UniProtKB/TrEMBL annotation:
GO molecular function, one term: DNA binding
Record InterPro entries: Transposase_17, Transposase_17_sf
Top-level taxon of origin: Bacteria
Domain Transposase IS200-like positions: 11-159
Organism of provenance: Desulfonatronospira thiodismutans ASO3-1
Gene3D superfamilies on file: Transposase IS200-like
GO biological process: DNA transposition
Protein name: Transposase IS200-like domain-containing protein
């Protein structure tokens, strides 16, 4: 039986929910692998003309919610800028190249293919294997802005809850609510343009708070599929008005105290790094990351960093 053609709206900005599963058994994608996958998504989403609205990266599949723009939206200058940023200033950008990339950088299939192929190359090299990593072609669903989108995003962010991995979605750093909370939406990866006019809100932090409230209240409802959020956790957050406290934000950054390689004052991190960089096959220069919420403390590693 021939495949049903993928639903595509290519004349206007369109939101898609993308799901792709591995062909391998069990849960082959480990924490470090999801770090790489998230970095790859960040890198390619800055190249393609897409907005990332939400994601959840699990042990055997991923969810991605994006808004992709039509060919008519990007200007020639915008395409030229992205090409030179991605490939280097030495790239000679001709009118024909711009025309070709105008189609590619607004193409849903090309975007997902680059993510999946990039991850397969990484995974096969890391684990010394060959062959396919992903299963059948990815699923995609067109989603309307507003309430439909927010419900979908909540469903995506609640994946680690239903799987019993964590008790709160922001405790899982490979989902969008975790990314908002733990990194403060580092590098502006996530768009919060949900189309929720009913919220009548323009302050980004308040939009995220209201979205967190929506996720918690939705997560407490037993839909008969997987685990639900503990009602005590929901009630506690409800009393706080769904605001994340300073202590909670600090706790989410505690990963720096276990995974940063070197942590301390900037001069100290530089001094130790200079002594050990020959072991890391590192470039001569590196920028160190300030640990937000802890004044004067820096990390050698940019945790959840973009793929280079």
């Amino acid at each position: 039986m021939p495949r049903i053609a993928r639903f595509i709206r290519d004349k206007q900005p369109t939101i898609y929910h993308i799901v792709s599963r591995t062909a391998l058994q069990g849960l082959p994608i480990k924490d470090k692998d999801n770090d790489f996958l998230l970095g790859l998504i960040k890198k390619l989403s800055a190249f393609y003309f897409v907005d990332v609205l939400g994601f959840a990266l699990l042990g055997n599949h991923f969810h991605l919610v994006i808004r992709i723009y039509p060919e008519s939206d990007p200007t020639d200058d915008e395409i030229r800028e992205r090409l030179q940023k991605y490939y280097g200033d030495g790239l000679k950008v001709t009118g024909l190249l711009i025309s070709d990339y105008r189609k590619r950088l607004t193409d849903l299939g090309a975007y997902v293919k680059d993510i999946k192929q990039g991850f397969t190359r990484y995974f096969n090299k890391k684990y010394g294997r060959r062959g396919f990593f992903w299963g059948d072609r990815f699923k995609s669903m067109i989603v309307q802005d507003g309430l439909s989108l927010v419900n979908l995003l909540a469903y995506v962010d609640l994946n680690p809850i239903r799987a019993g991995i964590v008790k709160k979605p922001e405790d899982y750093r490979w989902c969008s609510l975790g990314y908002h909370t733990q990194t403060g939406n580092k590098d502006g990866l996530l768009s919060i343009d949900f189309g929720m006019k009913e919220w009548n809100e323009f302050d980004p932090s308040e939009i995220v708070r209201k979205y967190r409230q929506f996720v918690y209240e939705t997560g407490a409802v037993d839909a008969g599929k997987g685990k639900v959020m503990d009602k005590k956790i929901v009630e506690k957050a409800r009393k706080k008005g769904y605001k994340v406290s300073r202590a909670e934000r600090f706790r989410y950054r505690c990963r720096y105290f276990t995974d940063s390689g070197i942590i301390g004052g900037k001069d100290f991190v530089q001094e130790v790094f200079d002594q050990v960089k020959h072991l890391l096959k590192s470039k001569d220069e590196r920028k160190f990351t300030p640990v937000k919420g802890v004044d004067g403390v820096f990390s050698m590693k940019r945790l959840m960093e973009v793929v280079e």
